[in-house]
Write a structure and sequence with these properties.
234 residues; mainly alpha; Serine Threonine Protein Phosphatase 5, Tetratricopeptide repeat
Length: 234
């Protein structure tokens, strides 16, 4: 028996895995309370993360529902614009960081623009633009930027603010909007008394293969009216 105990003790002392296991068990016993707190903390973090994710999903769905209800009012016959605007304003106030809020600002801009409230339209479009930069595909940002340019043009800030916005559309992935952007830049130069610059932009537009046929025709007609001016000034 004594020889067996000595042999077992020798094996235990020489086996590094056994020795490591003993140390781990000893450490765990000494730090049991700390381990329990750590496990409880990890469980709490998982619960908070899950709860936050569930809340975000519910928040997003609620915002989309509010947007749907407001747009139904705009599509009614006749449109209930006043009530729709009120609902859109409440949506952006309560759900400001959602895609639905960005879209709501965009529709608010449309309503103000159609009512000739250009400064209000410009502010709404800018709010949509800022949000689309963070949470929406580049195409949505291009649309918002184009409407910012329209509102700047209509507000009388055609040069340089609107020109900069129209130029941003030219550099966006939305190639089918290039004709609109060229036309807008040309109009701004005409409005601010720079017809030669307008002619240069229109000629550039006609060389651009991405400009649609309809836009190309309108630009060509505008260019034909301005070319005599260019010859006189040249």
């Amino acid at each position: 028996m004594a020889e067996q105990r000595v042999a077992r003790k020798t094996v235990q002392q020489s086996d590094p895995l056994f020795s490591l296991g003993v140390h781990i068990i000893t450490w765990a016993k000494a730090h049991l309370t700390l381990l329990l707190y750590g496990v409880a903390g990890a469980v709490t973090l998982l619960a908070v993360a899950f709860g936050w994710s569930a809340w975000q999903q519910h928040h997003t769905q609620a915002a989309e529902g509010k947007l749907y209800e407001a747009l139904k009012l705009l599509q009614a016959r006749p449109p209930q614009r006043s009530q729709a605007l009120t609902q859109l304003q409440e949506l952006v106030k309560n759900y400001g960081n959602t895609t639905a809020a960005a879209t709501a600002y965009w529709h608010m801009g449309h309503e103000h623009f159609e009512g000739a409230g250009y400064p209000a339209a410009l502010e709404a479009y800018k709010q949509a633009q800022q949000r689309f930069q963070k949470i929406a595909p580049p195409l949505m940002l291009a649309f918002a930027t184009l409407h910012v340019a329209y509102a700047q043009e209509a507000s009388g800030t055609c040069d340089p603010e609107a020109v900069i916005s129209f130029e941003a559309v030219l550099h966006s992935p939305a190639s089918w909007l290039r004709g609109e952007a060229y036309a807008g830049i040309g109009r701004c130069y005409e409005t601010t008394g720079a017809p030669q610059k307008a002619v240069t932009v229109y000629e550039r537009a006609l060389r651009d293969q991405d400009v649609s046929d309809n836009a190309r025709q309108l630009i060509a007609e505008r260019l034909a009216l301005l070319q005599p001016v260019k010859k006189e000034q040249g």
